[in-house]
Amino acid sequence: KNEVEQSPQNLTAQEGEFITINCSYSVGISALHWLQQHPGGGIVSLFMLSSGKKKHGRLIATINIQEKHSSLHITASHPRDSAVYICAVRSAPDKLIFGTGTRLQVFP
Amino acid sequence: EADIYQTPRYLVIGTGKKITLECSQTMGHDKMYWYQQDPGMELHLIHYSYGVNSTEKGDLSSESTVSRIRTEHFPLTLESARPSHTSQYLCASSPDRYGYTFGSGTRLTVV
Predict the structure, then answer these.
(1) Which residues of B touch A (CB under 8 A)?
(2) How far apart are CA B25 and CA B30, in angstroms?
(3) Which of B44, B45, B88 sits opposite A41 (nearest CB)?
(4) Over the stretch B26-64, which tens digit does the pLDDT of each residue have?
(5) CB contact under 8 A, B43 and A86
(6) CB-based burial of residue A78 (10 Å sphere; 0-12 exposed, 13-18 middle, 19+ buried)?
């Protein structure tokens, strides 16, 4: 079993839909990252969380440390949101463990 | 704009050739990392550095080597490329325990 599990693996949506991607982890962490990877391969860091909730534009990320679970929400989804979303946790001693990603496609 | 630069973006090269993938960052970060990612798979750490003259191997065994002679520069070298080295290589840097900046990646194909 992977230490970081994401669901769903693949997700399709119509433009405007509210999207949720989930991440569960089984190790102790100091922080959790949500990353976005476009087809070209480059990665953009969206959020870094150690507790609570963060919001940036149409993106919202939450984390529940007790339940070892985080969610990434996209409100009013748009085709340009189509990408792979990766959850990564920072575990002791100081390394990132990555999920396999959620592939999102948003259709107009 | 990118503060961490990887070149080349794409590379197709023949078996047995020596290659160097470049990674440079302009943020003065001490920590730098190389990750390998096969298609549809998660990223795996292959090398990291905590500063000049510091290099360590990561979780995934790799035949590549790295050097860190300057803070801003962390190149990865394959002495003799093989088809099994075909993958995407991502460089990242971090100023502390938490924040990361990733490069755009180098997609390597060895034929």
Answers:
(1) 9, 37, 40-45, 59, 88, 90, 92, 97-105, 107
(2) 10
(3) B88
(4) 999 999 999 999 887 888 999 999 999 999 998 888 899
(5) yes
(6) middle
